[in-house]
Amino acid sequence: MKRNFVYIPVFTFFFLLLFSCNDKRQGKKSTLDDCPVIAYRNGSLTVLDISSLKDTVSVPLSSLLSDFEIIRLENSDEAIVGHTMAHAISSNYLGLYSEKEYKLFKRNGEFVRTITSSGQGPNEFWIALYDSYIDEENNRIYLLSFRANKLLVFDLEGNALQHIPFPYTVHKGRFRIDTEKRELLVTVLPFSDNPLVVWKQDFDGNILQGVDVGHFALERGNYNNEVGHSQNTAVMDFSLIYWQHRVDSLYHYDEEKNVLESVFTIDWKNRDVLGHIYTELPNHYLVRFFSTTPALNPVLIDKDNLRGSYVKIKFDMLGNIDADWLSFDRGYFHCSMFPYDLKEKMKKALARPEVLTLEMKEKLIKFNNSLTEDDNNVIFLGKLKK
After folding, report:
1. What is the DSSP string of 244-257?
2. CB 3.0-4.6 Å disulfide test: which of 59, 61, 188, 265 passes with 249?
3. Measured between alpha carbons, how far is residue 143 from residues 94, 135, 211, 269, 317 in Å?
4. Which one, of 177, 296, 271, 275, lies nearest residue 228 by Cα?
């Protein structure tokens, strides 16, 4: 297959829209700030009042971002990816886990190399990757597998380096690394046989401090739940995604006090608890629901004024199409889309010419015509506003 990669900065590609809120009762549009207060504070804890949710707000994705880019991955055979996870983003590189391999690309979409793959070798990961990080300044890539007794370490050339041992087995873990101090913060799926739910360790595997598993303890071997964290602020956040639908909180890890402090939760008002995922953004809390019939839109809450609503996040850079499941992690938004799916969405956008400017319509047509269904994935990246 031919090599084909295109980097497109969005602010020269499509224009931006504003928040808009449709008030059906009054038949008018208002801004997000005009939507009602839907949460209250209890000390340092923010509580979403689920009963206060009424209307739905259309949120342009660009309003949450300080920059945005569209990356078309190279089309060579070794570069092809499928469903992607464990994205890692640095100034000049993009790391993607896909189809049992972790691949490194330049930020313009050019394929660099495959770093490693799943297997049982000393430099391979077990089953899947759950988290990754590129430390470009220090020429390091860190990879954390589904179940791990070490954090895999490679250089950008793909050479295996000294891996970092864990004091306990890490199940579906997440991590934050401080290369200067040579320290790790680790959060884990807290099985009952693991004494800590979050801990700080050095690169030799020595525990420096940690929080007892306590009430977080889960049945050993029950992988149905997930560790949720986003690392979009200066503080390490932590939550558990319970598939059995439990009341819970989003926590911050206070390193100085060595405690997990609850910072956000939901007041269900005697309603049935729904499956949900907390994501903390720099200026908002985002709650997404799953296993609901009918499907519910996510909720976005302004941290400052506590106003918010159900939201539909729109790709305003692509004709205001509905955004699919989005990831917000380590200060970035990222989304990987198959070309056939993207072309179908743009086709639907072009079928609504009344909502497109002439400039946007022309650019959508040009972009759509440049894609084929056999192309590699298209990656959307954006840095979150602070």
Report:
1. T----EEEEEETTT
2. 265
3. 13, 11, 23, 41, 32
4. 275
Residue type, 242: Y
DSSP state of 283: S
Residue 326's pLDDT is what?
80
Alpha-carbon distance of 286 to 310, in angstroms, equals: 10
Distance of alpha carbon 157 from alpha carbon 154, whole angstroms: 8
Residue closest to 174 by CA, chosen among 213, 135, 138, 144: 144
Q: By the 8 A CB rule, do 267 and 49 touch? A: yes
- Show the DSSP H helices in 74-229 as ranges: none
Q: Distance (Å, rounded) from C-alpha 264 to C-alpha 248? A: 9
- Span 103-108, mean pLDDT? 97
Domains belonging to the chain, first-starting first, are 6-384 (2.130.10)
The answer to whether the bond into 294 is cis (omega within 30° of 0) is yes
User: What is the residue type of 80?
Assistant: I
Q: Which two tokens stand for residue 155?
A: 């250089």
DSSP, collapsed to helix, strand or coil, labels residue 316 as helix
Q: Is 10 exposed, middle or buried (0-12, 13-18, 19+ CB in 10 A)?
A: buried
Which has the closest alpha carbon to 278: 229, 315, 236?
A: 229
Read off the pLDDT of residues 186-220 as tens digits, 9 standing for 90 and up.
999 999 888 999 999 999 999 999 999 999 999 88
Pick 222 or 380 by higher pLDDT. 380
| Six-digit token string for 297 | 């839109």
User: What is the overall mean pLDDT for the chain?
Assistant: 89
Confidence (pLDDT) at 353: 81
Q: For 259-289, write each residue's pLDDT tens digit.
A: 999 999 999 998 899 999 999 999 999 999 9
Helix crossing, 358-370 with 339-350: angle to 10°? 150
Q: What is the largest CA-CA distance in the chain?
A: 64
Query: Rounded CA gap, 333 and 64, in Å?
Result: 9
For position 245, what pLDDT does the model report? 86
CA distance between the termini of the chain: 41
Contact 40, 314 (CB under 8 A): no
Banded pLDDT at 31 (limits 50, 70, 90)? low
Question: Hey, what are 72's tokens?
Answer: 């078309």
